[in-house]
Structure formats: C-alpha cells, structure tokens
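Hey,

The postdoc asked me to send both predictions to you directly instead of through the lab channel. I've kept everything plain text so nothing gets mangled by the mail client. Protein one:
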Amino acid sequence: MTIWHPDPKTLQHPLHAGLASAIANAISEGELRHGEQLPTHRKMAERLGLSVHTVSKAYDTLRRQNLIDGHVGRGSYVLDPNLTNNLPFKLKSERRDGFDLAISRPVFSKLHVDRFKQALTALPNDVDPSMYLSCRPNIGHEQHRIAGVNWLSACGVETTPEHIIMTNGVCHGMSAALSGLTRPGDTVLSDDITHHLVIAGCSYLGLNLVGLRTDEFGICPDALESHCREKEAKVLCLLPSLASPTALMMPEDRRRALVEVARKYDLYIIENDVFGPVVANRPATVTSLAPERSIYLTSFSKCTLPGMRAGYLVAPDHLLPALTGRIVVFGWMATPLMCELATRWVLDGTALELAMWQQAELGRRYDIASKALQNVQWTGSPSGLHIWLTLPKGWTTGSFVAHARELKIAVAPDTPFLTSKKPSPNAVRVSLGSIQDLAQFKQGMDLLAGILNRPYEALPQLAF
C-alpha cells in the first residue's frame, strides 16, 4: 500500500506550516480519508527532504486542530473532519471527567474554526496597512463603523457611523460608559440580581450600586419611581434581552414604562445587549425608545465565537466626547485588526450566519434542559446562553454547589450576581453553551437533575 505524501515542490515557507497546510487541504478535499495512515515522522522527513523536527512540528499543529491523532506503535491517522467536537484546541472544561456548566460561553464547532481561518487567510491579500500601523482614530476606523450600522440594524438599533465607537467588547464599553456618566459617589441603579461586572465595575469606580425590586419581567417601574423620587441617581443599567443572570426577557411595555421614569428624573440608561441578533422575537431595544439618553452596547463574542473581541458602543452626540476620552484611558482604541475581521464577517454575512447557527444550537440545548429539569423551577429561553435555576426547598446555594462538585459538575452560584442588600434567592446559573459536546452536555444536565430530584442531605464533614 502506498502511503500518501505531498509534493515537496509545492510546500510553502515556513516548511512546518506548509506541510501542515498541505495535509489539511488533502483531508478537506478527500484526498486523505478518515482512518488513513500518515507516514512516520522519519519517513515523511526522508521523502520530503526535511528534518524530523520540522515534520514533528507540522504533525503537532494538525493534532491541535484535531485533524489527526497518533498512538505509539501505530503511527498517525486522519480523524473524521465531520465530528462536531473537532475543535482547534482542547478546553479544560471539555475533560471527560467533569462538566463545566458555570462559564457563560457560546457554542462553537468546526464551522467556526473554518470561518476564522478563511478570514485570516484573506487578510494578507488586501488588508489596509492602517489596520496594523495606526493607533487612531480612537473611536475606530470609519469603514468599521460604517459596517457597524448594518450589524446594529440587525440588533434593532438604527444609527449612523458618527454615533458609533468601536470597543473590545461589552466589558470595555461598560467601563467607558460607567466612568463617562458618573463621578465617584454617584448612584447607579440596576436589577437586584445583575451582571457581576456591573457590580465589580461600580465598586472599582467608587459608585453606589443600588439593586431595585424586580419581577419576572425585570425592574418594577414603581420601584424605580420610588427610588428616584426620594434619592438621586445618575444611571440605570439594563440587561433586558436574556443577558441578565436570571435570563429574563423584558417585554416592550415594561421597557417603555422604565424609559418614561428615566425621562422624568433625567436618568441615563446603559443597555447591555451582548447577545445581539441571537435572541429571537425580541421587543424594541430600550435605546430605540430613548436614543437621547441611552448608551447601547453589543459584541460579537457571545453570538459568534469567544475570541472575536470586538463590539460597538452607540451614544447620542453630547456624550461622545466624554466616552471617547474613557475609551482612550481604558485601552486607547479597539484593536483594529480584530475589528477588521468582525467587519468582514458583517459585510459577507458570516456574522449573521454564525449568530443564526448559535440560535439553533442553543434551542437544541434548551430542549435538553427542559426535559431534564421539568420537575424544578427555572427560567430561560431557547435563545439564551444560560438558565436561572431556583433550588428546591432545603437546598442553599452553597450546599447545592458542593453536592454538584462531588459529581464533578460546576455551576455558577448566585452570590457574584447579587447587589449589596439582596439576600440569596438560593439559585444557581447554569450555562447552556460551556460544554461543546452535545452528548456530554446532556449527561451533565441529567446528573444535575438527579441531584435536584432527591431530597437534600448534608455532605459528611471530614476532620483533618
């Protein structure tokens, strides 16, 4: 049997990368099929006139991409490129001896890896040198902000390039917005259970964060009215479209009611809409209802893939100078090369393709969670990245997290999401996207349901 090898005259430099690319292309084109054996390192080196070290580096690259695998005594073999869990690297949370249901992360697959590689391959041919030579404009390159108009329209925000600032994601934008709208000692209002980075950000900036009473639709308008009537506040932070820990979807009438109170008491609004178009059938954005006092934040990291650290901040004219100054202080400007990749994905349709893929995949995981957790109380959405699980009587957050840990299941406790005066509701946040393999995700959810369907019992305390 003849074992495949590439034509040495076609290998590009550096040679280890050229060899890895040649083998990867042969796999994608069907020239090398699932299960076929590659030459040993030494035989491949002899055939191509390369060093064994060069071949080893190429094979290592292909292993990290999950295109080949190797076993001592058997050599290297081609893996099935159609497996959904073929990821470019191994995540710690993907270990088969544990289940990470804690970290909020989108689902991704070989499709995402292929799209990212294609984008990177296209860059050297036609990328504008300003993408890697310039450090201005601080608000982001004009072509990136022009493309942002299209993406923001898909998110429900109609704007112009002049009102957009590029960011390195929502966290970057949130830091700029909080510091641009407030001064130390000012009061910021939010849900009583909110994003942990809102809590941390207010603490770092010396702001007084007050959590307001909520119901299943979000902040109660009368609670907002009552606070503003008796005390001053500068900013209202909202996560109205599934981005809050409780995974709530705020209906349009509630959004309008909160906007009315904000106008009455001259509150600025920061709207965190990190999931963007992944969220199906959502109401009008808060920003579209009150553009004169709203800062809108969104990003690509939750709706395409985690490493796409690029996003948009939209603000009215009179806030742009202050916000630009904060962007400079917190990072000078968004990384142009990453914004270039995001822009290309917006313009060629890849970003929306991956967002719709994410929406469909989250729907499958929501169905699995619904079947596993049908006997307990929880909130969530088929478009959400997580669910909020209220624990049955007898459980505390601490005891449940400890029991889950015994089965090597990680869930997020409620503690980091609670504002200062909010007592623990005895709940946990469960991520739907952190385990990439669907079968492993189902196994983890079934184990979680097994704990919940049994009465609480204390773990033994070990003396040391």
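Protein two:
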Amino acid sequence: MKVGKTAKTIIIIIICFSMYLYFRDYFKAIKTWLDPITNFGLLSYFLTYVILGIPLFIGTYLINFNKNIWKDLGLSLNIIKPFVYALLFAIPMLLGGIIFFDFNADINTQNILAGSIVIGFIEELFFRGFLFGQLFKNTKLGFIPAIFFGALVFAMGHLYQSQDIFELFGIFTVTFMGAVLFAWLYVEWNYNLWIPIFLHALMNLSWNLFAMDETALGGLLPNILRGLTITLAIGFTIIYKRKRNMDMAITKNTLFTSLSISK
C-alpha cells in the first residue's frame, strides 16, 4: 500500500467524521421535522441517524471506490450466526437481570428499542464500521492507534450521564474499554459487524430492561455480569478460532502496524 493512500484515507475519515459530529448537534431539529412525516417516533429516530451518517457513507465510498459501502462497513455478511453467538455471549447479563433485578418500570417499547437496538446498530456502524474499521483496513495503522481516537470519542459521548468526577472517570473507562472490545470482535470475526452490533444491542437491552443502574458505570453485581459476558465473548472467540486452526487477527505484530494484514 502506498503511503499516499494512508494519508488520503486518514484525511477523508477526519473530514467526514468531523462533519458527522458537527451535524449531530441538529439531531433534535431533524427528528422534529421527521416526526409529522413518519408519525412514528422510533422510525424518525432511526432515520435521523441515517441522515446524520451521510458524510460517513460518502467517506466509505471515497476510500474504497466501489458502490458496496455496506460490505466495506461490515454489513453484507450473514446475520443469523452472529445473532446466535451474541445471544450466547449476553446470557450472563440477560439471565442475571431476570434473576437479580426488577424490570425497569419507567421504560416503554419505543424507548427501549431506541436505546438498545437502534443505538447498538448506529454506534457500531459509525464508530467501529467507519471510524475504526476504515482506518484499520485501509491504512498502515495497527489496532491500538486505529482504535484509540474512536474509543476516545465514543467514551466522551457517554459523559453526559453524571456530574461526579469519580463516576465520570468510571463511565469513561467502561465505555472506552467497551469500544476496544467491540472493535476486537469486529476484526476477529472477519469484519462481520453484526457480531458487535448484536452484542452491543443485547448488552444495552439488559441494562435498560432491568433496573441495573442509571448510568453506564453500574454497581458491583451488574459489572460482574458484564464481566462474565465480556469473558465469554473473548473466550469463545479464541477457542472457536483455535479449533478451526484460524490465526488470530490481532497479535503483537498488528498492535501498532497492520502491514502484515492483507488489504
């Protein structure tokens, strides 16, 4: 790969993602405009994100110069197995929620779908499929430099949940590491974005469906359940690949440079 393409890719990503972040401030205005058109708040919510994501879709096309941007973002692969695997990974949180927590009485169907499924899909598509994925697949950056900025922005986007400095630090750490986990799964499962999408959505669903905590930080028991889910996802992925004699994509050789990865 020529250095010129690496620089060009980075410039396109910075410009397009900056445009997304800028226009995201108009989320409420766009959704308000769409609401009387769709007469369905959840659909307006989703379509607003689609509109805001237009710069990212254009950027993906410009980077790869083909019309199958969904494949480039990781969406064109099989979705059945990823859902089954993600459901398996999420069992500790879902089952733990049923056993140890009450149902959240303050939620409704549209809110829980928006806060779990839609957000899980959009955040993985924008942050892992575009911001991380396009960097890692199309530049010489390794896993750590490719994920760092995206994980930083992703984590900072969750800091609205608290005003306490120690809680903010905890929220930042948890969401930053979550971004790293989802990016790792994305790469190890052959750039099938549906794995992190479904896992992200199911983890959000358990957090919203049951009264675990009001922020992403959570208490001791919710974090034990979350830790079990993360451990299961990582362990299953490693065992799955080893039993099929598949090499791990993220190794010490690809942490800082992706030169060894076929582009």
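Summary for protein two, as requested: Residues 72-243 form one domain.

Thanks,
C.
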